[in-house]
Amino acid sequence: MDLRPRRSALFLPASNPKALAKARTLEADVVILDLEDAVAPEAKDEARNAAVRAVSAGGWGRRELVIRVNGLDTPWGAADLAAVAAAGPDAVLVPKVNDCAGLRAYDAALASAPATTRLWAMIETCAVVPELTALAALRVTTRLAAFVLGTNDLAKDMRAQIRPGRAPFLPILSAAVCAARAHGLIVIDGVCNEFRDSQVVQREAEQGLEFGFDGKSLIHPDQIGPCNAVFSPSAMEIEAARNLVAAFEDPDNAGMGAIRLEGRMVELLHLEQARRTLAVAATIG
Length: 285
Fold this sequence. Notes:
Strand content: 15-25%
CATH class of the largest domain: Alpha Beta
CATH topology of the largest domain: TIM Barrel
Radius of gyration: 20 Å
Shape: globular
């Protein structure tokens, strides 16, 4: 069971030295050094070099370090993948995957990377939506370990509008979570474009939690606190989980598949959920 916290995954342009230095002091669970959208064409080469240096320099503590590369269909993608494979971050995030063949091409480009370097895929095109289950199944034969929703690019591809509630994207969010869970993948929600209003960020994070995401991708450090809070078990949830585990461990309930606890019936599936809650809390703690 992979319980490493991924409540907050902060995108930072690898071309910004101050942002890279500050990232080592932030409470984000995941830092994504971006070589793609956040970097101008004339800065691509230096951003790549800076990301490689950041991996080599270390100092990231418990944070998971991920590099988002440019696509293989761009002038920079092949060079990005070669350099990043040699650097060996925790994961490589690849953009605009449309199908299984595309993901296998990225996997092949990372053949020389350390075994510990995983492959994360952006889910941000219309074409990939009907392929989600087949794509997730590649976890068995490739480095694939995570889906990251790219709702801004998805909105552009759909010609949809991003409004509170994200109604046009709800079926896709649900489908991505289901495909990821069916095949043991991490799944991270898309960014919230609002960073000045923490309540907006919190509400969107709560929606992501409700859908079953492991965490949320972010565009600003001010979004870290609200997302970490939402995706962490609350004190009340931890206490309830402890009580449920204790009830099932009571000798009087030995061998029972369902018991009465605090006026309701709970089953073994609830015991499994409670144990996971406690394990997640311990890992975050």
